[in-house]
């Protein structure tokens, strides 16, 4: 039990009901305590010891709930439950836990980033495999039409296959725009400039698409011009 010596004013650990510290207790004092004799007169206390005693009596102490040791506390305010040493140990422990938690979080973020990169790479490989391979056109034998060539009625650039272009357009009942699209595609490379004919086919196709998007559909089956 922590006490203040009544002689010198210094704190000391009392085992029983001692009122003086071991340094102040003499042989006669020990015998007087054992024999329960009247207390020996106190020695005169110096002014410095008296001030120290007065200052010590004003100090408050508390018992740490963690280690059980007695520690001094402030003169005013709420008494803390743990001593400064235990409080520092708890702060160090909390800081260590926080650092480990931040390290673990960083590790998990790195794992998630690596997993996302692996999944993206796998998806890219899968998409690449699913893409159709480049089309390769094998040369085919051109079948000549049995229709004799006629620059007016049966131009050669329309009668290269088994069926004349105009007959296919009529059979499918294609509209004016689509008929021209087919006509220019079929004759591309066999009359005038190939790129020019393909551009004409694209022009008619885009125009027809614009009509459909505008709510107008060309249902006429008039034949395209020559």
Can you describe this structure in just a few lines?
The protein has 226 residues and is mostly helical. The protein has 6 helices and 4 strands, in the order E-E-H-H-E-E-H-H-H-H.
List keywords for this structure.
single chain, mainly alpha, two-stranded antiparallel ribbon, 47% helix
List the helices and strands and how they pair.
Blueprint: E1 2-4, E2 11-13, H1 27-34, H2 47-58, E3 60-63, E4 70-73, H3 84-130, H4 165-172, H5 176-187, H6 194-213
Antiparallel strand pairs: 1-2, 3-4
Helix pairs in contact: 5-6
Describe this structure in words.
With 226 residues, this protein is mainly alpha-helical. Helix content is 47%, strand content 6%. It is built from 6 helices and 4 strands, in the order ββααββαααα. The chain has helices at residues 27-34, 47-58, 84-130, 165-172, 176-187, 194-213, and strands at 2-4, 11-13, 60-63, 70-73. The strands form 2 sheets. It has a two-stranded antiparallel ribbon. A two-stranded antiparallel ribbon has the order 3-4. The protein is rod-shaped, with a radius of gyration of 55 Å. The protein starts with a strand and ends in a 13-residue tail after the last helix. Residues 221-226 have low confidence and may be disordered.
User: How would you classify the helix and strand content by structural class?
Assistant: mainly alpha
Number of contiguous helices? 6
Mean pLDDT: 77
Poorly predicted runs? 221-226
What amount of the residues lies in strands? 5-15%
The main β sheet shows up as: 2 strands, antiparallel
Span between N and C termini? Answer: 122 Å
Shape: rod-shaped
Helix content: 40-55%
How many E strands?
A: 4
